[in-house]
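A common beginner's mistake is to predict each chain separately and then try to dock the pieces by hand. The better habit, illustrated here, is to supply every component at once so that their relative placement is modeled jointly.
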Amino acid sequence: MGKTFSEKLLGAKADREVQAGDVVTVSPDFILSHDNSAAIIKKFQQIGVKKVRVPHKIVIVLDHVVPASSEKYALNHKIIREFVGEQKINNFFDISTGICHQVFSEKGFAMPGKLILGADSHTTSYGAFGAFSAGIGRSEVASLWATDEIWLKVPETLKIEMEGKLSNGVFAKDVILKIIGDQGADRANYKAVEFAGKAAQEFSIASRLVLSNMAAEMGAKNGYFPPDNKTTGYLKNRAQQPYEIVSSDSDANYESILRYDVSSVVPQVASPHTVDNVRPVAEVEGLKFHQALIGTCTNGRLEDLEAASRMLKGKKVDPSVRVLVIPASREVYLQAMRKGIMEVFSEAGCVILNPGCGPCLGAHQGILAPGEIALSTANRNFRGRMGSRDSEIYLASPATVAASAVEGKITDPRKYS
Amino acid sequence: MEKSMISGRIWVLTNNRGELIEDIDTDQIYHNAHLHITEISEMGQYALGNLKGWEDFSQKAQPGDILIGGRNFGAGSSRQQAVDCFLSLRLAAVIAPSFGAIYFRNAVNSALPVFKCPDLKEYVEKGKMESGDRIEVNYRTGEGTVVNKRFDFFVEPMSDVQEGILRAGGLFNYEKTLNTT
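With all components supplied together, the output reads:
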């Protein structure tokens, strides 16, 4: 019997044959954390070790509340800056660079065949590059800083075979919302996901990141895409290290194989308060909302901003709606600016915010009041996530969010494409 | 024989229709407004503060109480405060049919006993487990009893790693024991 990607990669790291269900002790290639590094530092100091074991494996990106919105966040950032200085952690990206998952990718840390662990649930994103990347907790990161070792259970794998071609006005976001809606928010708990099939290879790197990012919303440990020319092309002049592609065997043992024809997918919307509460846009069309968010680690890349700007070019957002645009990184910001996309947003009446997580997790920059509704390109619509527990969040693609912002109510973007 | 029992009074997280609440995510367990807090002792007051009908849980809970939740408990963010807030209240365990994967790991590593109990929903529906009942769970065999109702149930027994970390009092201490043997 052949092996899945996860069995092969974790086996290679553990230096023995493994199969799903085995527990391995492994050493990761990179360890990511963000503003929560302040809490991790506190845990690390409890361990009683003076120095981090391998400074160059540690990557810290400040993105959650940037610039600091209060004295407490400012103090947390200060503690982190002092720590990275003392510990000689060179892979530190301060508040000007962007959202950790985008920065980590752009700076070439996300590579095929690497084991990446991060103190953020959307660390699954790097599966888009063929890495095994999973979110872990704060104590585990502190422990990794100290010991460079961690226990992991080799997950079973769910394979998602995608065929067909997307219709106009339908995007990667619609595909992953459709899958999560069908399968449920816990379908892949403790499991790895492999995206496969011709349609998977058709997706751009940016689109693959959407699916891998949101694999976390099915409970997945990882969301792997087989690396190809697009992967190696993206990594040219970016890769931090040499890398080797790890692929599944054709006779690997899967927990299940799910098949999707993406040509039949229509624009999707996830309604409050769970990500699997998904229906076609037609069923929520006409719903009025107060705030739109275009950005986040899910949908803040250039192709997302381009799709949104096509809906907004030469138009104005409805006066009843506030539209927040947040490029995922400074690199994306610059690209969008040079292409004139930022001008389109500003002329349409959008508020352009600095790269970061912004209001996605309800910490600052556009908190919702009781009774307010947001339509967002983010990955989560949990109750109260963007502010008041009596507010609501709907999730959709950048095209759907932008088209809806023009009308002031949820609408199908296909009529504009 | 070392102690391998956990016992306590239970809180069954039900909605206003008496159904076990599913998909209780980390934002409902520990709201993002309190994420800047790094002291565990300060976290307990916010436990379940964003879960409808359970906002006052931290005032009601006593040390040693056990939480009973629905399917996919702790879905979402990797925030460890969602585990730490229960440690802060000194809860004895959390039992649910299934957990968010990162949540489960965080709980194991923090020595908060967590048990998967696949048939939990049925027990609650049939009134075999209600808030205020007292239960006992043997974490090695997975045998449980609702003491005041003399009702027996099963949870998945702890893995060796989970038990080892629990006995050591957390991942950091566990690693120390590994390094000295």
